């Protein structure tokens, strides 16, 4: 991999993306060698988690290693002691850090001060591990990523941003439909379009336009953790952006995707999640295998 850390999808090249996905497929099919025997991953989490915590713990176990979980109140990073000290202490004790934080700058600060790989397990800016699992899921169901069309309907948040970057790197065509004021930024789009890989990014305010003829329709919550005070206002702005039967009728062959947890009845209906076209729980399962691929590359390769 072109970076010792995974703080952003932008740390990966097109070849890295392909390698992660193909390695994950092989591990899912054939099982995993204990390449991380004797190695420990610190899970440094400021936010609660189901999929992220369990998938990292299972991934490390499958690779022969172990994970140790550190909650925010235990560490009080930036309060009880500075991020620089936390990073340097953990560098003396473990072999990698997976950080699930509110601020992306916390991930960058950890990477700056740590002498071990730092993985972004979620920040307000990006969610690279989720998106690698999403690419794995699409590869399984579509057979290939290059040339595939992916539509995202909803908030231009961390997941949408990582999807935009990853789609271009993987040679996919990504269309993002968001209401005014909630789009990906012009800087995001400019950065995505400048990436290698051959994919494309298009913005629209029309969910119907976004999903027409697409291979997959993706959505995420309208209100993320830390934005609960905006929930009522966001529901008004996102009226018409729900993934439901009417919208999916415009893409009759499209997969239905959501990174979970879902607010059923808001950004997506229960009917859509439970439909035969839904790959939502495949996405969740694939967190394990995508992360195994990343962990094996960052923590095992080049080490004695």
Q: Structural class per helix/strand content?
A: alpha/beta
Strand order of the largest sheet: 7-6-5-8-9
Going by CATH, the homologous superfamily of the largest domain would be Aspartate/ornithine carbamoyltransferase
What string gives the helices and strands in order? HEHEHHEHEHEHEHEHEHHEHH
Indicate the radius of gyration in whole angstroms. Answer: 19 Å
How many domains, as an integer? 2
Strand content is 5-15%
CATH class of the largest domain: Alpha Beta
Summarize model confidence as the mean pLDDT. 95
Molecular shape:
globular
Number of helices: 13
Helix percent reads: 40-55%
CATH architectural name of the largest domain: 3-Layer(aba) Sandwich
Strand segment tally: 9
CATH topology call of the largest domain: Rossmann fold
Distance between the termini: 18 Å
Low confidence ranges:
none
Main sheet, how many strands, which sense, barrel?
5 strands, parallel
